[in-house]
UniProtKB/TrEMBL annotation:
Residues 56-219 form the SIS domain. Homodimer. It comes from the Bacteria. This is N-acetylmuramic acid 6-phosphate etherase. A lyase-type mechanism (elimination/hydration) is suggested for the cleavage of the lactyl ether bond of MurNAc 6-phosphate, with the formation of an alpha,beta-unsaturated aldehyde intermediate with (E)-stereochemistry, followed by the syn addition of water to give product. Keywords: Carbohydrate metabolism, Lyase. It comes from Cohnella lupini. The active site is at 84 (proton donor), 115. SUPFAM superfamilies: SIS domain. InterPro entries: Etherase_MurQ, Glucokinase_regulatory_CS, MURQ/GCKR, SIS_dom, SIS_dom_sf. NCBIfam families: N-acetylmuramic acid 6-phosphate etherase, PRK05441.1, PRK12570.1. The keyword rRNA-binding does not apply. It catalyses: N-acetyl-D-muramate 6-phosphate + H2O = N-acetyl-D-glucosamine 6-phosphate + (R)-lactate.
Length: 307
């Protein structure tokens, strides 16, 4: 039987020993107080988080994928973050993926024992055709989940970059990761319930991994989402507002540019900012790999050369 008592995430919180005797207001207050510690713990891990993001950006830029893998709450957080990337950043559903112990059904209903199957992780990654171009991010609050350890071990065998996100220092899975992100948030308010502070810490880290990576891949201009898939009336209005915010153009100009650009936000912005046509705007975006600021400079330069 494995002894988990040494794991901070499994220890009792001395501040909440009388939790069951507290009032509703007192419980909410102490939970809020404990949650305040999470951001500071994440802050301490920023250097290694930054290195992990560099790895992810390089991998995706070279045609690789970001693959989250985990069990229980940690696995569900991976599914959540991956599923939000296509609508937010316009990437396809293969670029950022999530693999969960027990399969897709485990997102809704726990599959008992799935997290203990170390060998199944390699089988699951084989089904995704893991390659050396990819990045595997193992998610486990405890830092000892066999399924995640198996995943990181297989990633190394395949030559894929590996990252771990845990909430215990010097964890087992950290030994199998190229970059080990360890965010220790202390004992939970409710002993062992890592869906609380540990999950909050992991979600904050995942927010940084994908959002910062997508920014550095040209999916954002200023602080605005660029690769919006304009598929309905609401999103068309949002695209128009983005163009207006980015360029200072009025409603009619933004509408006209988007119509000419076939609702492609980046093209519309370059057209307005560089005062050019659709073809030149698209050419500039192609030349700069979709980075709007660079495309505007390129389009303006091309116009000057034509004069």
């Amino acid at each position: 039987m494995e002894d988990l008592n040494h794991l901070v995430t499994e220890q009792r919180n001395e501040r909440t020993r009388d939790l069951s005797e507290l009032s509703i207001h007192e419980i909410a207050g102490i939970m809020n107080l404990e949650d305040r510690k999470v951001a500071e713990s994440v802050h301490l891990a920023l250097p290694i988080i930054g290195k992990a993001i560099e790895v992810i950006v390089k991998a995706i830029d070279q045609g690789g994928r970001l693959i989250y893998i985990g069990a229980g709450t940690s696995g569900r957080l991976g599914v959540l973050d991956a599923s939000e990337c296509p609508p937010t950043f316009g990437v396809d559903d293969q670029t950022v993926q999530a693999v969960m112990a027990g399969g897709a059904g485990a997102f809704i209903k726990a599959v008992e024992g799935a997290e203990d199957d170390e060998d199944q992780a390699s089988i699951d990654l084989q089904s995704r055709k893991l390659s050396s171009l990819d990045v595997v991010v193992g998610l486990t609050a405890s830092g000892r989940t066999p399924y995640v350890k198996g995943a990181l071990r297989y990633a190394k065998q395949m030559g894929a970059a590996s990252i771990s996100v845990t909430c215990n220092r010097n964890s087992i899975v950290s030994l199998y990761a190229d970059h080990a992100i360890e965010v220790e948030v202390g004992p939970e308010v409710l002993t062992g319930s890592t869906r609380l502070k540990a999950a909050t810490a992991q979600k904050m880290v995942l927010n940084m991994l994908t959002t910062t990576s997508m920014i550095k891949l040209g999916k954002v201009y200023q602080n605005l989402m660029m690769d919006l898939n304009v598929s309905n009336i609401k999103l068309k209005e949002r695209a128009r507002n983005i163009v207006m915010e980015a360029t200072g153009a009025d409603y009619e100009i933004a509408e006209r540019a988007l119509t000419l650009a076939n609702n492609h936000v980046k093209t519309a912005i370059v057209m307005i900012e560089a005062e050019t046509d659709v073809l030149m705007a698209r050419k500039a975006l192609d030349e700069t790999k979709g980075f709007v600021a660079q495309a505007i400079v390129s389009a303006r330069s091309s116009l000057r050369e034509q004069v």
